[in-house]
């Protein structure tokens, strides 16, 4: 029996264990094998590499929409090479890239240079895409995201799942959520604003832009959205302002039937995961280590929550599962004196999550809202404990009690910190934590029910 004469089912079982490079070589053998292998290469493209979607770091509760690919990508150039091949503005053979992109149903990739307009402009050409996962690595030193043009293309008609992580331009987030929202069933967001380098740097990689108005006492509220940072160890800022405002003349309707062009429509959304950095609350004298002082942008905080509110309101009739995650900022040197579980427990009063919880309580208490909601998962949100139950004296615990009265299942898990570079301000958003799972002294990690604590340890449930 030759390779060419193998039954199709047996052939596909064998090729399921091959790498992308090996499959590519198979396509050159004969027409029959090419016809069988070609969909394997182009239907699902997974170009995440080590650390971005590792099984030990991916949230297991609730289960991920797409399991990590068995293929290991060792080079960070894979995604760049792919998008260079697929550029559609080439004078020759422009139709072939469009044909290939139309075959892709699932695209999962790291964008190493978030200021690359090539990658973002290609997204609308994946016309049959059902699942999209993008992780933006970072900006070039002095590039302003405002240089990324708006995406004016029609929405992807079959897109059901979108996951946008880290440094994704506002224009891209706006297009995916606002323009493609009509078909989305699951949405996961962990968006970061441009970093701000520490003011102690002589040659900062990411100097403040004029709109940042760092420590500018003369800047009015109208002149700056983020005037509350001081420039010292600026915790990565959650991205806000990516949804078009009501008076945005450039916003377009999600459908021809929508009269109010600014209205966000998410009529099918059932699963929503919202993640962001959060303020580090100094534990003061309660700390068993020397706490470091950080800067936090309260205006970025408010802008992020404003967009979250609109997303929650737009999905209030259909939402079944809600995941909320906050990661307090931590420079990498913190790991020398404290581990992640201890760091996460320093905000016992839950002050870092108060604004988020206040907003959620207000939305949940509105009449006829969130009737389909059945499960809520909290990561990095303190809930306290009182007689084995979440404490009403802590914002997160108060939320859990409210959900319990509404017969909504809720679990609170420890969560993890948001590592970032002390000087450049860049976040390591891929949840890669050096000392958490590698030989750490268990007696220093605390425990829950006699078991060592990890980032996904269950703290309370109702």
Automatic annotation (TrEMBL):
Lineage of the organism: Eukaryota, Fungi, Dikarya, Ascomycota, Pezizomycotina
Limits of the F-box domain: 1-45
Pfam families noted in UniProt: F-box-like
Residue spans of biased composition, Acidic residues class: 215-225, 433-445
Gene source species: Cylindrodendrum hubeiense
Residues covered by region (Disordered): 202-228, 431-462
InterPro entries according to UniProt: F-box-like_dom_sf, F-box_dom
Descriptive protein name: F-box domain-containing protein
């Amino acid at each position: 029996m030759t390779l060419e004469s193998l039954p199709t089912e047996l052939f596909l079982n064998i090729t399921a264990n091959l790498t992308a490079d090996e499959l590519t070589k198979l396509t050159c053998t004969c027409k029959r094998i090419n016809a069988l292998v070609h969909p394997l290469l182009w239907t699902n493209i997974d170009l995440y590499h080590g650390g971005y979607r590792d099984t030990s770091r991916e949230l297991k509760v609730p289960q991920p929409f797409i399991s990590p690919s068995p293929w290991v990508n060792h080079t960070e150039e894979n995604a760049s090479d792919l998008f260079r091949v697929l550029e559609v503005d080439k004078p020759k053979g422009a139709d072939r890239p469009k044909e290939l992109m139309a075959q892709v149903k699932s695209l999962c990739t790291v964008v190493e240079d978030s200021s690359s307009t090539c990658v973002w402009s290609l997204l609308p050409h994946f016309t049959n895409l059902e699942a999209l996962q993008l992780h933006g690595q970072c900006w070039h030193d002095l590039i302003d995201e405002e240089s990324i043009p708006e995406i004016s293309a029609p929405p992807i008609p079959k897109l059901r799942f979108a996951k946008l992580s880290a440094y994704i331009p506002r224009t891209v987030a706006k297009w995916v959520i606002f323009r493609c929202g009509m078909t989305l069933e699951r949405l996961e967001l962990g968006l970061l604003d441009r970093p701000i380098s520490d003011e102690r740097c002589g040659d900062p990689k990411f100097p403040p832009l004029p709109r940042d108005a760092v420590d500018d006492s003369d800047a009015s509220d109208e002149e700056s959205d983020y005037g509350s940072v001081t420039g010292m160890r600026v915790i990565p800022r959650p991205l806000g302002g990516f949804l078009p405002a009501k008076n945005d003349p450039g916003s377009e309707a999600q459908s021809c039937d929508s009269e109010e062009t600014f209205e966000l429509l998410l009529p099918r959304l059932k699963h929503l995961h919202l993640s962001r950095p959060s303020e580090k609350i100094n534990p003061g004298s309660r700390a068993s280590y020397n706490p470091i002082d950080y800067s936090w942008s309260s205006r970025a905080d408010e802008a992020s929550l404003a967009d979250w509110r609109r997303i929650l309101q737009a999905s209030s009739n259909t939402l079944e599962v809600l995941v909320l995650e906050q990661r307090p900022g931590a420079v990498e040197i913190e790991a020398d004196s404290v581990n992640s579980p201890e760091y996460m427990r320093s905000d016992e009063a839950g002050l870092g999550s108060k604004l988020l919880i206040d907003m959620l309580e207000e939305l949940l208490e509105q009449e006829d809202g969130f009737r389909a909601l059945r499960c809520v998962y909290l990561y990095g949100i303190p809930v306290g404990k009182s007689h084995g139950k979440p404490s009403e004296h802590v914002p997160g615990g108060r939320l859990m009690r409210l959900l319990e009265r509404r017969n909504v299942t809720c679990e609170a898990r420890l969560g993890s910190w948001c590592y970032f570079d002390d000087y450049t301000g860049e976040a390591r958003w891929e949840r890669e934590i050096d000392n958490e799972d590698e030989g750490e002294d268990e007696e220093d990690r605390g425990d829950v029910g006699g078991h060592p604590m990890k980032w996904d340890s269950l703290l309370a449930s109702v």
